[in-house]
Amino acid sequence: VQLQASGGGLVQPGGSLKLSCAVSGFRLGDYAIGWFRQAPGKEREGLSCISSFDGSAYYTHSVRGRFTISKDNAKNTLYLQMNSPKPEDTAVYSCNTQVRGESYWGQGTLVTVSS
Q1: Any idea of the CA torsion for 40, 44, 49, 52, to the nearest 10 degrees?
Q2: Which among 94, 91, 97, 96 is positioned nearest to 107, based on CA atoms?
Q3: In angstroms, rounded to a whole number, what is the distance separating the alpha carbons of residues 84 and 96?
Q4: In whole angstroms, how far apart are CA 16 and each of 89, 111, 112?
Q5: Measured in whole angstroms, how far is the alpha carbon of residue 71 from the centre of its chain?
Q6: Average confidence score pLDDT of the chain
């Protein structure tokens, strides 16, 4: 099982950025998967996850209404559309899933929100 996040970079406040998480070793449609982030000096925070059962999406309060999680099962890729990012969204973003009882993390991608 492998996960690889990409798409990070520098984005201006109020702009937009789309992150991707390419997965392999399992079928994306069979397992729940989510996005996390860790800002400098802070604990890792769960942002959003998407259900394998019915595709329902869940968001933490700080990103609800601004970020959108989605996935393309055929491409085995998870996405996070970030709209109207704020400086406090600056962090390393990672994707995570649990397959057969084991937790897997992808290498993160750095997002810097700054003017």
Answers
A1: 130
A2: 94
A3: 24
A4: 12, 11, 12
A5: 10
A6: 96
The answer to whether the CB of 97 falls within 8 A of the CB of 104 is yes
Tell me what pLDDT residue 67 has.
98
- Return d(Cα 36, Cα 25) in angstroms, integer: 20
Alpha helix ranges (H) inside the chain: none
Q: What is the pLDDT of residue 46?
A: 97
CB 6 within 8 A of CB 110: no
The pLDDT value recorded for residue 105 is 94
**Distance of alpha carbon 5 from alpha carbon 17, whole angstroms:** 13
Distance CA 40, CA 43 (A): 8
- 57 three-class SS: strand
Q: Note the pLDDT of residue 30.
A: 92
